[in-house]
Design a protein that fits this description.
The protein is of the alpha/beta class. The protein has a domain at about 65-245. It contains 10 helices and 10 strands. Strands 1-9-8-2-5-3-4 form a 7-stranded mixed β-sheet. Helix 7 links the parallel strand 3 and strand 4. The longest helix is centred in the first third of the chain and has 18 residues, at about 40-60.
């Protein structure tokens, strides 16, 4: 991985130059955030490349073999949520090596475990994502998809069987008019899946936020305290806390994230 990073890093500058509007939005986000002194385009792109390489390295392997070290905090919180006998929603965010957010929590032996995700921009990449995630008793539910692999029909099975649904709360695919937004620190606008979360709440889900960040060669995975509701205030506190722990590892590049 260090070799790959060294080879690919020179490509980051032309990539930045080719996407000037993107770079301007990122700079505006960095300035508006509480982390202006800790964020730079060059450092951000370089770290994003390292996180991407970690994800590629983890693809198709057991999680214990993909990192030199993984520290897991709060495992009892997930076990307690499963023991409640209610459906469980794992709420993650795109920060650090986020593939671990789907891979590390174990699927219960007697209940389904599904990952809600959007198809990628290319069919080959979509298939690659599914290959890496549909392992160890887990399957993907495609946002906007139909049939048994679609989120709407798959949710019925998850809820009826008191299963586990893993989803991200800081990105919402689809048209702008379908998004709901919140403001982080009163200065950064980010989308969140409000309608889906409200639906899960009415069906008795217990919500367990999860986050992960890199600390040199260690991936620190954390289960946060469970919620009975996942409203904007709870989500705002979770996102602000998790991003502040490693602001350069969050996906500021997502086009719907912008200064408020």
């Amino acid at each position: 991985m260090p070799f790959s990073r060294a080879v690919l890093s020179p490509l980051l500058l032309p990539y930045h130059c080719l996407r000037r509007r993107h770079a301007a939005r990122l700079r505006a986000c960095f300035r508006a955030s509480p982390f202006a002194d800790r964020l730079s385009l060059r450092g951000y792109y370089r770290l994003r490349l390292g996180i991407l390489l970690h994800g590629l390295r983890a693809h198709g392997r057991t999680v214990t073999a993909t990192f030199p070290r993984i520290d897991v905090l709060g495992e009892a919180l997930y076990a307690r949520a499963l023991a409640s006998g209610r459906p469980v929603a794992l709420l993650g965010l795109h920060a650090g090596p986020w593939e671990l957010l789907h891979r590390l929590p174990e699927a219960p032996a007697d209940r389904p475990f599904a990952i809600a995700t959007a198809p990628a921009f290319a069919p080959a990449l979509t298939a690659y994502m599914a290959e890496g995630r549909e392992r160890e008793g887990k399957r993907i539910l495609w946002v906007g998809g139909a049939g048994s692999k679609g989120l709407e029909s798959g949710l019925r099975e998850i809820l009826a069987s008191n299963g586990v649904l893993a989803l991200m709360v800081d990105q919402v695919p689809g048209p702008e008019e379908d998004c709901e937004y919140m403001e982080l620190w009163g200065s950064i606008r980010t989308p969140y899946p409000g309608r889906l979360l409200r639906f899960l709440e009415t069906r008795g889900c217990v919500f367990v936020p999860v986050s992960v960040r890199l600390e040199r060669t260690t991936a620190v995975f954390r289960y946060h305290g469970a919620w009975d509701a996942a409203g904007p205030e709870q989500l705002r506190g979770f996102l602000e806390e998790s991003i502040a722990a490693a602001p350069d590892q969050w996906n500021w590049s997502y086009p719907k994230v912008a200064p408020a």
